[in-house]
Amino acid sequence: MGRYRKKTLIFQEPIYVQSSGTSVGPREGSGPLAGSFDEVFSSLYCGEKNWEAAEKQLLRTAIDHCLTKGQITRGDVDLLIAGDLSNQMMSASMVACDLQIPYAGVYSAGATLVESMVMAALWINGGFADHIVAATSSHYGVAEKQWLYPTEFAMQKPLYAQTIVTGSGAILLGRKRTEVKVTEASLGIVYDFGVNDPFHLGAVLAPAVAETTLWHLEKTKQALTDFDLIVTGDLGAVGTEIYRKILREKGLLLSDTHMDCGVMMYCTKQHPYAGGSGAGCAATVVCGHLLDMLKRGKKKRMLVVTGGVFLNTTFIGQKQSIPTIAHAIVLEREE
């Protein structure tokens, strides 16, 4: 089964990644990771009439690719664990309605995919399911309209702001042995570090991501050198520097062994401000580029720590500080 060490799980019987699927918008599809995505839409509308329907299409497309690559039908899936950034997680809920798969909605903003994967691994580890899909999505137009400012408002953002990723990632977990397995996980604590600027996500997320990183290393009695790669999401350029500074002050040095999903998503000529963010950012990077690295043997073991913020328009208007959380999961190549 597994061992539980207050927030940290060690799976003695690994949970295996059966397949994954990704879909992204045009901006993401013309970035550095373009070759790792299953489907790239040429328009933010994704063939639909509005952005909300477009996000639903993104999520459905990612799940369809995941099931096709896993060579199973939706009838073989015991549970869909998913969430997104839209109000009441409408994209995930509507896709679940279309698929007619038992559904559990979860929300941790940018940390939603990892949270979904941890929940899925627990269900499978406990013997309650054989196949579970974990998925999430975000859409630039939907999120900007809901959380910040509509695109038509044409407000200039600060340079430390980040760009909401238009994309979706889905991953199928099960017991069948494959090239990649889930072996450890840590669920985070909600923190409030006093930052109330919704544009300054890097400053909000970095301390929480650092806390969960340090916690996981301590509870599993491991060092940074036990991993080929430490992956964070979605700190962006500003948050990455803060994260590395926090770890450096704890005596832990990160160099080429650290990659951030928000930094990886875009190139500077795309003018993404400080990088990518949103639930679809880490999801598409993990389900695409990172799993490819493990399958091809370029990396053998990685610790993925993704953060998310909890806020709504009321909180933003009241200038309240923004709570944040970070979850971690360990992905390993099966030798």
UniProtKB/TrEMBL annotation:
Read off the InterPro entries from this record: SpoVAD, SpoVAD_sf, Thiolase-like
Q: What superkingdom does the record give?
A: Bacteria
Pfam families reported in the protein's UniProt record: SpoVAD
Record protein name field: Stage V sporulation protein AD
Which Gene3D superfamilies does this chain map to? Stage V sporulation protein AD
Q: Which GO terms describe its molecular function?
A: acyltransferase activity
Source organism of this protein record: Shouchella lonarensis
